[in-house]
Design goal:
single chain, five-stranded antiparallel sheet, Arc Repressor Mutant, subunit A, 18 helices, Beta-Lactamase, 16% strand, 16 strands, alpha+beta
Length: 488
């Protein structure tokens, strides 16, 4: 009697088998599930950060795919296939098992495979023939490597090479790993260019005010001598307006929004000196001296989705009446300034007059000092406004950034003509960009805004692009049913 020794299973494969078993994957599954129709696939591609770098990746891997009858596959973070490249014979074989655009190759969908296992493990992996859970994949071998976004630190996709062979050449794993690193270096170059633009725009106005961080929590800059230079590049928690975060030395800080970035101001244990809002009639203590010296303060405006709009002047919170917020919005939109007649038209329409504007400007100057200039009326300082940042991102086609910052409509209680016009334009453009170029995550973020919650087209698009089993589907279905029943 011949006793066969049990075949040793590599630890990455045994771990993947366990995950596949826990997910209830059937070894008899015949193909990966289709999750994207043609329109949803086009949206997912356009929204993906690798779309801009596809020519480079295709050029890098095309020769390998064509000469070896292998298939190159690029997916998103959930294992949805967005792009494939390979000779016709390889593509025909792949289509029979759903290894094609629009299909899902996560471990919980088809079990152990080069794409899903690499994404689950967070490192390059290869899977040979019978190491696959699904029997239909036993004639395939594949190697995949995840791609991590250096800005957020999250995996955004996977590069895979697959073929109908019992074993891939050992260099294939190194090849996909190198391709993934090259894609990450391209993403990092983009990130560094964005970082430099933020520093150039904001640092001249921050002086030693606090720590400048990105919306993803990366430290961009620290005041010289106040914090260690080594903090630059480190991460803190993801900031939000007014949120308290922990600095690398353990101190707490409050996040002040600066458009695409945040300023973290230390909050002492007994309260934050300077946190008390400026009241009507109170002038900021040191503002006039800095302003006349030519240094200029920084005014930040948070007007999106706010029932009570607010501003910060060099970090000092300023309580604003609605009319004063409308004035600041109009002046921020017209940096060259407005005449009395022009500002009156922005605020009151045809019924306005400069006489109506002058007392409001006087009261606003009592709060903001020399920041509000006259002849023409204008803002004589650096301005960072959430609605201006959203407009800039819309112009750049940055759907994810625009939707993330679009927390609601511009000054929703305002009837000022200039505000209404800007509010309507922003609402239409954000919605259109989310639908045209936003993937599932962008659409879901938009659906949490006030206008997005009751948008039937957005909910139906989400129903199409969210993969089966996604916990967000239940909320989408429930909200959609209420809208169709006329209850929303």
């Amino acid at each position: 009697m011949v006793v066969r020794k049990p075949v040793a299973v590599r630890p990455p494969i045994s771990e993947s088998w366990r995950r596949s078993r826990d997910a209830g994957v059937d070894a008899a599954v015949e193909a990966a599930p289709l999750v994207f129709d043609r329109d949803a696939l086009a949206d997912a591609r356009a929204a993906h950060p690798l779309a801009r770098h596809l020519p480079m990746l295709e050029e890098l891997l095309r020769r390998v795919a064509d000469e070896t009858e292998h298939l190159m596959v690029i997916t998103d973070a959930a294992g949805h296939v967005l792009w494939t490249q390979g000779p016709p014979a390889a593509r025909r074989d792949a289509e029979a098992i759903g290894l094609a655009e629009g299909f899902r190759w996560s471990e919980d969908a088809v079990g152990t495979n080069g794409i899903g296992t690499a994404l689950a493990a967070g490192r390059p992996e290869y899977v040979y023939a019978s190491e696959h859970v699904a029997h239909v994949l036993h004639r395939w071998s594949c190697a995949g490597a995840p791609i991590t976004d250096p800005d957020s630190g999250r995996v955004v996709g996977c590069i895979d090479v697959s073929a109908t062979v019992r074993a891939l050449h050992p260099a294939t794993v190194a090849l996909v790993a190198a391709a993934a690193r090259l894609a990450e270096s391209r993403l990092e170059n983009e990130m560094r260019r964005r970082d430099e633009r933020l520093r150039e725009r904001l640092l001249p106005h921050l002086r030693d005010a606090g720590v400048l961080v990105t919306a993803t929590g990366r430290i961009l800059a620290t005041p010289a001598g106040r914090y260690p230079e080594s903090w630059r590049g480190r991460r803190v928690g993801v900031p939000g307006p007014g949120r308290t975060l922990t600095l690398p030395d353990g101190r707490t800080a409050v996040a002040e929004p600066l458009g695409e970035a945040f300023l973290l101001r230390p909050a002492p244990a007994r309260g934050w000196p300077g946190a008390r809002p400026l009241l009507r009639g109170e002038r900021p203590a040191a503002d006039a001296a800095r302003f006349t010296a030519g240094e200029g303060p920084l005014l930040t405006l948070s007007f999106l989705g706010e029932d009570r709009p607010f501003a910060h002047l060099d970090g000092r919170p300023v309580l604003l009446a609605l009319r004063h917020a409308e004035i600041l919005a109009a002046l921020a939109l017209q940096p060259r300034g407005l005449t009395g007649d022009g500002l009156a038209l922005c605020l009151y329409g045809e019924d306005g007059s400069p006489a109506s504007v002058r007392p409001e400007i006087h009261r606003l100057r009592q709060q903001l000092g020399g920041v509000v200039r006259a002849r023409p009326y204008r803002l004589g300082c650096a301005v960072e406004a959430d609605f201006l940042t959203v407009r800039r991102m819309l112009d750049e086609g940055d759907a994810a950034g625009a939707v993330r910052l679009y927390t609601g409509e511009l000054l929703p209680r305002s009837d000022a003509p200039a505000v209404r016009a800007e509010r309507d334009e922003l609402a239409v453009r954000v919605r259109r960009l989310a639908l045209d170029r936003g993937g599932a995550d962008v659409l879901w973020t938009y659906a949490q805004t006030e206008p997005g919650r009751a948008d039937l087209e957005v909910l139906e698009r989400l129903r199409d692009v969210l993969p089966p089993g996604d916990p967000r589907l239940a909320a989408v279905a429930s909200r959609r049913e209420r809208l169709l029943d006329g209850e929303a």
